[in-house]
UniProtKB/TrEMBL annotation:
Transmembrane parts of this sequence: none
Protein's name in the database: D-erythrulose reductase
GO molecular function, one term: carbonyl reductase (NADPH) activity
Gene: DER
Classification lineage: Eukaryota, Metazoa, Chordata, Craniata, Vertebrata
Record-linked InterPro entries: L-xylulose/Carbonyl_redctase, NAD(P)-bd_dom_sf, Sc_DH/Rdtase_CS, SDR_fam
GO biological process: glucose metabolic process; xylulose metabolic process
Source organism per UniProt: Eudyptula minor
Family: Belongs to the short-chain dehydrogenases/reductases (SDR) family.
Oligomeric form and interacting partners: Homotetramer.
Hydrolase among keywords: no
Keywords linked to the UniProt accession: NADP, Oxidoreductase
Gene3D superfamilies: NAD(P)-binding Rossmann-like Domain
The organism's place on the tree of life at top rank: Eukaryota
Length: 194
């Protein structure tokens, strides 16, 4: 896309993130989508997996959002932030103790951000998808025996496609959701109601 300049950096590196994102902009919109999923049974969770997950799934969102929101406030422009969470923030999944916990924390962080940034006309929401058929999703969920148990719990009977998530994000970034902040938009095919 013309006019988009990608920044490649380790979001867990606080100083490098501050320098790179702080020099970019001006911003009106932000989508936080970086995440890691290091799946381990609860009794086998390692400190390294916990720290890496907290660094990427929570700390990076907080930090990047601070940098961008400060710029929005300084410019006096309204804005929108969408944090990509997961259905796993709402439902316990085997071997997902750390992932579920960091995504639940992300949902609550987003609510606090919405409350504190709202007076500055900055809206903050999350999208919470089920399994998404990215390249990684296809690799991890293409085995019918593995995917059947999950798909059988989704009333729409399928995993999400990338466009399902993108369209939800675009809605939350747009003026069509001008009165929506502090909300979580489930893109889960009904998984959480089953």
């Amino acid at each position: 896309c013309p006019g988009i300049e990608p920044l490649c950096l380790d979001l867990a590196d606080w100083d490098a993130t501050e320098a790179a994102v702080g020099a970019a902009g001006p911003f009106e919109l932000l989508v936080n989508n970086a995440a890691v999923a290091m799946l381990q049974p609860f009794l086998e969770v390692t400190r390294a997996a916990l720290e890496r997950s907290l660094d990427v799934n929570l700390q990076a969102v907080l930090h990047v959002s601070q940098i961008v929101a400060r710029q929005m406030i300084a410019q006096g422009v309204p804005g929108a932030i969408v944090n990509v969470s997961s259905q796993a923030s709402q439902r316990a999944l085997r071997d997902h103790a750390v992932y579920c916990s960091t995504k639940s924390a992300l949902d609550m962080l987003s609510k606090v951000m919405a409350m504190e940034l709202g007076p500055h006309k900055i809206r903050v929401n999350t999208v919470n998808p089920t399994v998404v058929m990215t390249d990684m999703g296809r690799i991890n969920w293409s085995d019918p025996q593995k995917s059947a148990a999950m798909i059988n719990r989704i009333p729409l009977g399928k995993f999400a496609e990338v466009d399902d998530v993108v369209n939800s994000i675009l809605f939350l970034l747009s003026d069509k959701s001008a009165m929506t902040t502090g909300s979580s938009l489930m893109v889960d095919g009904g998984f959480l109601v089953s």
